[in-house]
Records
---
Amino acid sequence: MTTEHPGLRESNLFNRDVIHEIQRAAREGIYGIRGWGSKRYLPHFDDLVFLGASMSRYPLEGYRERCDTDVVIGDRYASKPLHLKIPITIAGMSFGALSAQAKEALGRGASAVGTSTTTGDGGMTPEERESSTQLVYQVLPSRYGMNPDDLRKADAIEVVLGQGAKPGGGGMLLGLKMNERVAAMRDLPPGIDQRSACRHPDWTGPDDLEIKIRELRELTDWEKPLFIKIGASRPYYDTALAVKAGADVIVLDGMQGGTGATQDVFIEHVGIPTMPALRQAVEALMELDMHRVVQLIVSGGIRSGADVAKALAMGADAVSIGTAALIALGDNSPEFDEEYRKLGSAAGYYDDYQAGCDPAGISTQDETLASRLDPVLGGDGWQTICAPSPWRRRSLPGPVVNPTC
Amino acid sequence: MEQLFDLAQTPLRELNQALHDCLPDAAESVWRIVNPKGEHAVACGIDTPADVQIQGHVGYYCAGMNKQAHVVIHGNAGTGVAENMMSGLVRVKGNASQSAGATGHGGLLVIEGNAAARCGISLKGLDIVVRGSVGHMSGFMAQRGSLVICGDAGHALGDSIYEAKIFLKGKAQELGADCVEKELAEEHLTFLAALLESAEVDADASDFRRYGSARCLYHFDIDNADAYA
Ligand SMILES: Cc1cc2nc3c(=O)[nH]c(=O)nc-3n(C[C@H](O)[C@H](O)[C@H](O)COP(=O)(O)O)c2cc1C
């Protein structure tokens, strides 16, 4: 590898990033923890292209002809399924990882475009319940803030088995973000480096999960759709087992998926990328005759209408976004470049969500920083990236995107 | 007036729906459930001042997320009895399987027999009194509340415990990571005696030892690596 000085060769194995990391680890003695998703190259939807309409395929008139983008989620057993106007949902991101303002902004934006948002590993805040017309309540291994009142207030329930960024790993919330409110919601002392459990406390394996799901349905009188979220590691088997366990909906989070705080080694070296994971999940559903009966929501690196369309074309019923939604709220904006640099980062590189010093006021619990984000304006901002997506989808040839178009 | 549900005749759904139809501020109601025969999720999600007597053995998650109600199981209970309970009282006359009282936020759970592994796992404020012994990993990651064990405890008692308190009369096979014995001060004796009394368990508070967190794992630090070993 040639640098600006011909003759100086940088090692492919021991490149400057690697050297920096070894020296940091030697100094600090602990693995690196960060937010965001994987940063290394992984196969992704960019590696796919659509076949446009031609002799044998009939195109739709873009921007004019009707194209339905709504989707019903969770009608296998639930008496009150979700009806989303667009097939793009907001992924679960905890209050704790994100500020209350960011959670509210996500709820407002999601409600404005007729889609759902999701709680996270810290319980449900009143702000996000009020601002979200369709709110999915996560049941995580930690069960922080879990209570039957919030369960009944939710529009759907998501049992989280794992995340794409760290399949098999529990959450982390470092001391700087464990302020009084966050700690009280989690029944923990403020200021500690908190690690959420990685295993559920009251069930082990798919047979138990089936019984757990029955309990959650009994608790909520069989009204709410039940989602099972899996981090992509054995998606073919996990999908089949989730169907068997009685899920209405499967949420599949690929290796590219974002996180609030995880060990870098976990983010970069564990899991299956979103695209091949999706293929395996669809195959499992088809073999069971459950494709489009149990809906499949896919996440992990969804950035654009093209990614959404490709995921749907591959067999997903909807997608879920985390990082892209935060970016739409202002995360990594050049506007904050100077402040990112003071933190040793720069706009476009910032991934220290764990540190709680986010100049954009999103991944922080600091009141002053968090108040920089206006939940109303933020909500407007991100809804505009989603709102035109039907239009974007329509600009792609209908039949290859989705048979209902 | 007592309501009688025979689960050999009536589907569980009808029972749970009838319980859920009672409002939180309703007058106290009395329920008797017969022939549970190991059914799962019996009487889960109650939020009303009900007195519920279950005659027989129950499966998983009986009285899950209970609020207000007093539920008595005249038999053994499967996995996760009273999981995430918020308030009220749940009493198991027989033995309880694993994860009894898991993540419970409040109220009192009494197990008159033994409890299996992971009793009181991730406890968040509930008090649990076990007249017999508990299995391995009991009190794992317990955050708040207390676990009182009148018999012995299996391996890794209180592993990774936060601020919950463990009172043990017998012996622990081994303490888990970051769990240590602590002084049983006057305030603890008073608290424990009151708890034993409300659990109607006849034991002397001064016969117990108290265990809790050494708080060494509260902050990520390379110097703590030994604590996991
Ligand atoms: C800041 C942040 C916090 C997160 N918190 C949670 C959480 O509490 N529970 C959960 O299941 N997933 C959590 N995730 C993962 C997301 O739900 C989702 O799987 C992921 O962000 C999707 O990938 P994407 O970011 O590339 O869109 C979090 C992600 C981020 C970026």
---
Amino acid sequence: MDVLLQQIVNGLVVGSVYALVALGYTMVYGILQLINFAHGEIVMIGGLTSLFAAKGLLAMGAPPLLALLVAILAAMIACAVIGVLIERIAYRPLRNAPRLAPLITAIGVSILLQQLAILVFGRNYFSFPELISKAPIVFGHITVTLNEIVILLTSFGLMAALLWLVHNTKVGTAMRATAENQKVAGLMGIDINKIIAITFAIGSGLGAIAGVMVASNYGQAHYYMGFMLGLKAFTAAVMGGIGNLWGAMVGGLILGLVENVGLIFVRGDYKDIFAFVVLVLVLIFRPQGLIGERVAERA
Amino acid sequence: MNPTLDVKKLQVAYGGIKAIKGIDFHVDEGELVTLIGANGAGKSSTLRALSGLIKPAGGKVTYKGQDITGIPSHALVGLGIALCPEGRGVFARLNVHENLLMGAYARNDKAQILTEVDEIYTMIPRLKERTLQMAGTLSGGEQQMLAIGRAMLAQPKLLMLDEPSMGLAPLMVEKIFEIIRMIAKRGTTILLIEQNAQLALEHANRGYVLESGEITLTGDAKTLLADPRVKAAYLGG
Ligand SMILES: Nc1ncnc2c1ncn2[C@@H]1O[C@H](COP(=O)(O)OP(=O)(O)O)[C@@H](O)[C@H]1O
Ligand SMILES: [Mg+2]
């Protein structure tokens, strides 16, 4: 029982990070029907950028909290800029091409970003400084760290903020309108290229923060960290119903829970299997995802 | 004085096939002009070319003396041109209120926008009753009303409507035309594209008849209504 509770807590922490990454996949899919396979690499760049920014700031004598905040900001800016550039350079010219073309391009961009990361940062595993305490805090039978609590709260805060933005602001409404019908959105005076760029910037910014979280939680970052994480978050997005914000969040949390609760029964080396078993099961039994709602569209 | 909309030798092609073969027409300020024609005549193609949804293959479009040929559609709204597209094009997963607000996207005068949303609700009470309902769950006629209301929130000087009566029951068509009449009365210049020639000509000042991408007849709406050629081809007798 205690083990189960502990794994649920661990699952929520990991799952909330999956959810943030899954949102990036789902937002882009929602607006362009494109699976941006490079999104995992964005997360990786977020992790590495923040790591080096934080180390640099600490070396200059900055207090850990300031180093963390600046590192997050640096990662977000770097990732948002890269995300927007990818859309502009790689995806936009293919917007009316057959669907396979941008998909293959996305895989190409993903490899390109990995190679760029190797060029800029190298192939090493770098250790992420402990900016928020990772000393165990014991609540009854479960143990958490302050770092984990901050991750969980920040993720939920960001998810709430995103939902608010998408449903209660002009730009958010324009994002939904553009996702539904780009031509008509254009007729409303919406510059859809701008809205798409904003979508990439927001998705990448969330991915950057997820990268910081992963790097800080595991205490390291490396050029390959985005691959498995991206794949899992994509799984989470599909599981929830790709294109659907709630789906990505619920999918991420469920995946984190399944993985960590599953660890009670299976050796740690097999942990990654769960994500893909879940993916296959969802694709077989509920291809539209758990939250695959569709509003009737009558003519 | 310049006409509000002046179209010269407009051509539209899909691949190599010419759908519009160089047509001329104009709409003067305050006029309600209709472009009528059978299914496939090229009515929507004309509107698409006017509204930046496709690039014309040739010709020139002038709005109040300004060349707007091939301008991207999001830039038109700022000039005062709004289009109600064929098939209404409401955002099914946005509610009625959000759809209306999207019509005012290019504007920033929030208080005035909300006042005008209320005006639309007064003019079209059905929308007010459904303000928080997803547009996709509205009936076809309600969606058309929403599409027109949404276009009005752009404060257009020129409103272009593509077959607002399409697929609607006669009673609903009456209601839609009543709304169009009210908008015209308020001074908005209107270009109305219709297959329903009878109704369109009854409401319009002038009309053009489009056949296979060419304008074959033009004139005063009353004259066209009485024209035997129009009667034979479009008015069932
Ligand atoms: N996207 C398209 N691709 C190819 N041909 C088209 C396309 N849209 C319309 N057409 C053709 O252009 C002609 C005019 O169509 P359209 O403008 O939609 O007519 P209308 O609106 O008067 O019914 C038709 O012959 C139609 O088949
Ligand atoms: Mg048509």
